[in-house]
Design brief:
Keywords: Carbohydrate metabolism, Lyase, Schiff base. The protein is an alpha/beta fold. The protein has helices spanning about 5-15, 30-40, 55-65, 80-90, 100-110, 120-130, 145-150, 170-175, 190-195, 200-215; strands spanning about 20-25, 45-50, 70-75, 90-95, 115, 115, 135, 160, 185. It has a single domain (about 5-210), classed as Aldolase class I (TIM Barrel), CATH 3.20.20.
Length: about 220
């Protein structure tokens, strides 16, 4: 089965990104310097999560002021969140899981979208709605690489962006799996570094990740 064009676009984007930082922004003033620090380190594809009161405004600020950033919206939980992501001009959307209602709305939306799955049944629901690239979440807590390999047997065409429990120590192992197109995680920009404004440290961590994880 051929992927819909928007899913093909998402696969290309995720493959080129390799690592997608999961950004939880508590202070609006941190949004632009954080995005600039990541982009300076070679990390351009960013997931701004809808987990805080300032998330929408933070995403708007990054889209308007950091032209090299490719901004997606994460923690999409329902059709309203999906509509918000579209209105913001986001490049993609990601959810931690997926209800039938959300899958239906996302299938009808022009926005490239990766629904979250943790089980074979959830993956079947995603595939039935046309989503062959999904977020495997929470990756380590849901069985890790062994679980991902088990899913590859009955679902050889599914592709994954594992997120949850992934960091500098194990990102390369996940990316080595043939059905993984990218990994997500917050290790590039810890809450402590964001709170303290350690933008240089975030840039350095991003540079190190891109150097070690990008294909030669």
């Amino acid at each position: 089965m051929t992927s819909p064009p928007k899913q093909q676009k998402l696969a290309v984007l995720f493959k080129s990104a390799c690592v997608i930082p999961v950004l939880t922004i508590d202070r609006l003033d941190d949004a632009i310097p954080l995005a600039r620090a990541l982009v300076a380190g070679g990390v351009r594809t960013l997931e701004v999560t809808l987990r805080t009161p300032v998330a929408v405004e933070a995403a708007k600020a990054i889209i308007a002021n950091v032209s090299d950033a490719v901004v997606g919206i994460g923690t999409i939980l329902n059709a309203n969140d999906l509509s918000s992501a579209e209105a913001l001009g986001a490049h993609f959307g990601i959810s931690p899981g997926a209800t039938p209602e959300l899958l239906k709305a996302a299938a009808a939306s022009p926005l490239p979208f990766a629904p979250g799955i943790a089980t074979a049944s959830e993956l079947m629901q995603a595939l039935a709605h046309g989503f062959d690239l999904v977020k495997f979440f929470p990756a380590e807590q849901s069985g890790g690489i062994k679980a991902l390999r088990a899913l590859a047997g009955p679902f050889p065409n599914a592709r994954f962006c594992p997120t949850g429990g992934i960091g500098e120590a194990n990102a390369a192992s996940w990316l080595a799996e043939p059905n993984v197109v990218a990994v997500g995680g917050s290790w590039l920009c810890s809450a402590a570094d964001i709170r303290s404004g350690n933008w240089a440290g975030i840039t350095a961590m991003s540079e190190r990740a891109m150097k070690s994880l990008k294909p030669a």
